[in-house]
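(Deposited chain)
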Amino acid sequence: MGATEQIKSLIKHFGEGDDERFISSALQIAAAEAQKGHTALAQELKSLIDKAKLKRNQPFADRSKTIPILPSQRDLKELLDVFQPAIKLNDMVLDVETKSSLEKLIEEQTNWQLLRQYNLQPKRKLLLTGPPGCGKTMTAQALAGELGIPVFIVRLDGLVSKYMGESIAKLRVIFDTMVNQRGVYLFDEFDSIGSHRNIGQDVGEIKRVLNSFLINIEKDQSNSIIICATNLPEMLDKALFRRFDEVIEFPLPKETEITSMLQKQLQAFEFESKVDLQSIAHQFLGLNFSDILRACEETIKAMILSGRNKLNPQVLIDALSKRK
């Protein structure tokens, strides 16, 4: 193969994301240079290739740069939605225990090299449980924001197929992607595929997908973070729980957390009259963070559209009452 063909082959394999053939082509170029008597160049190329191979083989290497889905992997676009989040943990209001667990994961992920020296691995497989609107999905984004990696949201509607074996193949593609593209992989509403295998009459593709998921998550050694979120933990198959490094519960916000949420969302504005946010928070125990956020947004929009520059406390109370 001539030099031109070797370079074309190198670029082709790079574009396809085929590391093995890319390195093979690079070694062929180094060998060709050695045959021409360019021993110094050949040795330099060989050294660069060895370093590249070492970095690619580090299971927890910090590959924080977002890697685009390659044209040869177009089927991934039907399975994954990917974006780079801007939020971090401090942008959220969290239960003290929940926040502590998440900070621990971030600390372990940040110091993975130190842990590897002792043959230990950082936490990276989480099951998040709790009522809707309590921050499970946003947590996946915040973790990605803290670590500077993208979020991949698994599209369960694209995963499950009526054809035997097709869903399992798609799931395998997702787990293979975790190895090549570091990120936070979120399986939201996970109970739709993770329910007890003895529930209902379905003995088909859903149960095969669950069995495949159990095998894949057990075998997974990537440096990505896997997060499964559910509002119905009691529906999950018991075999799932031991596959996770930690199960984190997201309860409905307490009075102090509702107060903090109101303060965080409304801190840029003044009220028309004195208002006791703690008293308002007490009235609306039972609301989730999503309800509170929307009520705050509604209050701010009402102020803007009325041409005023201060918030009306009654508008806030009415907006919260509507959601209780």
The chain has 14 helices and six strands. The beta strands are 80-83, 125-129, 151-154, 184-187, 225-230, 246-249.
